[in-house]
Amino acid sequence: MNAYVGTPTSRVDGRAKVTGAAKYAGEFAADGLLHGFVVEASIARGRVARLDTSEALKVKGVVDVLTHEHRPPLADKDEAWKDEVAPEKGSPFRPLYDERVKFNGQPIALVVAEDWEIAKFAATRVRVEYEQEAFSTDLESERGKAEKVDQPHKPRGDAAAALTRAAVRHEADYVIPTEHHNPMELFATTAVWNGSGGLTVYDKTQGVQNVQKFLCSVFGKEPDDIRVISPYVGGAFGSGLRPQHQVVLATLAALALKRSVRVVLTRQQMYGLGYRPMTIERVALGAKPDGTLDAITHEAIAVTSRYEDFSRNDTGWAEQLYKSPNSNFSHKLVDLDVSTPSDMRAPGAATGVCALECAMDELAVALKLDPVELRLRCYSDRDQSQSLPYTSKQLRECYARGAEAFGWSRRNPAPRSMRDGKELVGWGMATGVWEALQMPVAVRIVLTANGHAEVSCAASDIGTGTYTIVAQVAADALGLPIENISVRLADSTLPQAPVEGGSWMAASSAHAVLGAAEEIRWELARLAKAMPGSPLADLDAADVTLTDGMIASSDGRGAAVSIADVMRHSKLERIEKEKLNQFAEDKSHARNTHSAVFAEVKIDEELGIIRVTRIVNAVAAGRILNTKTGRSQIMGGVVWGIGMALHEETVMDHRFGRIMNANIAEYHIPVNADVHDIDVIFVDEPDERINRLGIKGLGEIGIVGVPAAIANAVYHATGKRIRRFPITLDKLLE
Amino acid sequence: MNNFQYSRASDVADAIRLLAADPGAKLIAGGTNLIDLMKENVERPSRLIDISRLPLRDVEETADGGLRIGALVPNSDLAYHPLIEQRYPLLASAILAGASAQLRNMASVGGNLMQRTRCPYFYDTTTPCNKRSPGTGCSALDGLNRNHAILGTSNSCIATNPSDMSVALAALGALVHIARPSGQRTIALTDFHRLPEDKPHLDTNLGSGEIIIAIELPPHGFARNYSYLKIRDRLSYAFALVSVAAAVDLEGNAISEARLALGGVAHKPWRSLEAEAALRGQAATPDHFGRAADLLLQGATARSHNGFKIDLARRAVVRALMQAASATPQSQAHKKIA
Ligand SMILES: Cc1cc2nc3c(=O)[nH]c(=O)nc-3n(C[C@H](O)[C@H](O)[C@H](O)COP(=O)(O)OP(=O)(O)OC[C@H]3O[C@@H](n4cnc5c(N)ncnc54)[C@H](O)[C@@H]3O)c2cc1C
Ligand code: SF4
User: Fold this and answer.
1) Residues 26-45 of B with CB under 8 A from A
2) Residue B118 and residue A665: Cβ atoms within 8 Å?
3) Which residue of B has its CA nearest to A44?
4) CB atoms inside a 10 Å sphere around CB B23
5) Does residue A6 sit within a domain?
6) What does residue A25 show for φ and ψ, rounded to 5 degrees?
7) What confidence score (pLDDT) does residue B39 get?
8) CB pair distance less than 8 Å for B2 and A604
9) Where does the FAD-binding PCMH-type domain lie (chain B) (predicted)?
10) Considering the entire predicted model, what is its pTM?
């Protein structure tokens, strides 16, 4: 009985979004609202020696200038500043805490005024003197200082020896620059002062409860004092996982001034938030002549800040994906005078798999093997890192379906062999892999006698479609038309949810909805059975389903009572049930999504112009709850992958430790002209083990493998291997 | 952004008066460049003189058969103007190669000529930059200079002029009409922008108190054999690494007249009469085009990151001339290079 799950249901919040009815954090009004503008440090390391706010305070309309010397108290223990997703090691950044400058672009003051423009103007009147200290922001020059992080990697066999004896060997560095998320919506917070010391905080975040707990601990507040709401998020991609500067600053100002305050970061200021850290990925592969791997080593060296150790699993993918008896992995960090990196779409995989899959392509060339064939020879039905079977893994099918749709069999393997007029044509491919995670999420359903249900949960919808899938699952489970379901999300007072990230929210929220709906069904069955002359009297609660507004026997003999009748008879206006999802603990299986990406590029070699004319992305990710929003997710990932391959790079001048392209005119992402055909294929992947609905999640997998497939296509077109991303024309012309 | 006064000019004379009255004043037309720079605190005008409503929006034929284009004609109106499309398609193409549709709707002809460099240091007030703060030094010389100039540079500044439209105007031999307190004057577009020398804070030869009122195109528009080829880091909506405006007249396969200008390589649109002269009378072959490119690029020098531009420019010139000669101009809608 799936009227909605698995169908291309349109977004339930689509109309609100396109008509402007959907309100974002920076759009909530409040009486007497003040506006804060952030003053940032312009050095990479040192201390603020003098901060003179007197000129700024003289500007008409300025209410106050908050600084580390002039602010309400802030918690002094690191623990208080550690949010749900803070790195384990380190001391989180504290805005306006003291005079230390830890990175360029760090907030050092907040000008609060009656008007945003006034605040912005007055910000230019804040005089700052620094004591600068020697600093470094350059990963490549500091590479030698890299330190290994603890990771549960188990080396297998003797990789060094196996590499030495390998019949065919490939080893290279792949360099992926720092990248920024650049979500469309600016980071914003409106902190509404409610008179009695409490605050309602509208924030752009991926986790309202994370922000709520964080604010309470940072400002020493009771849980009831602060409520955090974030009904819509205009993209975040990981940048909104941790509470960001603006929410601390808006809250700080509201508490200091006992007024409502809004702080909106500018696009430029958002480059002071988290980012995908630059990594140097060294991959070595040793193969036997038959194209099976005998050795894999993968070392990733990534940027982190001096105050926190942020690291992601760049090398874990090489560890699990391909069969290889000998392997060794290490992840290293270099501390630099920069802000702490953050998760960014498929963190660790977008980069680590990019390096691995470029290396696999180079190995295929060395072995004179078709790149798909090489992957099939190294294919593993078990997760190699833990030697576990998968709950499901249809990667083989991804290769087959993707290759078929792409026309891979017509590929001439020789580089520079395919042409279209003046352009060289290149075909490349890569594997993608991500995790299928699930987290504790609770959902409350309130069913009313008129046949409507409200489903609520603190989870965010960061544009991924959570509103829609929650409505779909609820409509199916309650047997109601989707129009009768209203969904409330992202309010910290609603049932528990972690941050929305890691592609875990679809499975987690859907199963919480199922659980709560089940309790409603039991309650309805109990009530229905108790009605005099009930046709369901002799049935177990387990033997009824909810369908078309009826409680009906599941055996199809037609016995049914309408929900409305049951509730009227029981004199109930509403039935309310809240349930935490439950997933069976299962350490015996690995859980992953996979993909096979095929890319076509056309290159004007003389001028170095690359066009990505086709991408086929065949994805195996369990059951697809909504083929329309799901397809959008994958397409978005592919577009981003094009950007990673060809455009994206945060450029720093290491003499100043400053980002020099902190705006989206100069920080390039793909524009329409850069995006051509994208074909998304969902490979059937029934999975009865992972969870009841067989859901794995789709947020990240779409980007993984795309940059490598494009880089490999560029090689196939030109015979040039570019291992330093993005692949810009100067590198091609070199 | 600083606090500023705002006045709306009632006519050109009023605008000139307002300019003369306040040395810190700036004209504002479409605002697409000026406002960005104000937000970054790079421009801090004491007063904005809004000229956007002045009656300088006409495209008129001149007595000698050329066209006179008002300084406030929006870039998009100009690109799609029937007379421009038919008679000066090189100009239409160059305009459409720049910015985005939304920006072109706002941008004016005068503002486009006056737009400032995209050098990242110029935009970042915390870094030294001779153009923004004379005498502080040039951060680009030994810094990030991948998209900086290779021609006509000085030790004070290696910035490029980012305008696409100006490159076509330079090739077409356009004139700039300027109003000033003492009347009007006219200068060639190729003399309008200047080289940085030791005064990089001056982008153009427009004097303080002067206003661009129109540009004028000579009668000959090279409507048959032209191409505007722009090479950039993504297929649209990016400033040129190198761009070429190429136009030729052919008699059979022989070139009777040639025009060639480069964008993205210097502080001004780069034209070389010598290179054009070398093409005259020659057959339209890649060899001859290559020789012209060499002449055009004579003296090109690179800094640490922009060396690729020299070779790229040469190739782009040859390709653009090929496109022009074969009457297959680069399409700005389809990004495949012809
Ligand atoms: C994201 C982005 C991308 C862009 N990409 C490109 C590109 O690829 N190619 C390209 O060529 N351009 C590009 N541009 C620049 C765009 O073309 C210019 O911003 C625009 O042409 C400026 O015109 P305006 O009328 O808005 O000028 P304004 O911003 O109003 O003014 C700019 C300057 O001109 C002066 N001025 C204006 N009118 C006159 C006049 N009549 N007489 C004297 N001085 C005057 C002003 O005082 C000011 O100093 C881009 C801009 C942006 C923001
Ligand atoms: S190149 Fe010119 S604009 Fe750029 S930093 Fe140097 S002086 Fe300034």
Assistant:
1) 40-41
2) yes
3) B126
4) 10
5) no
6) -50, -35
7) 94
8) no
9) 1-222
10) 0.98
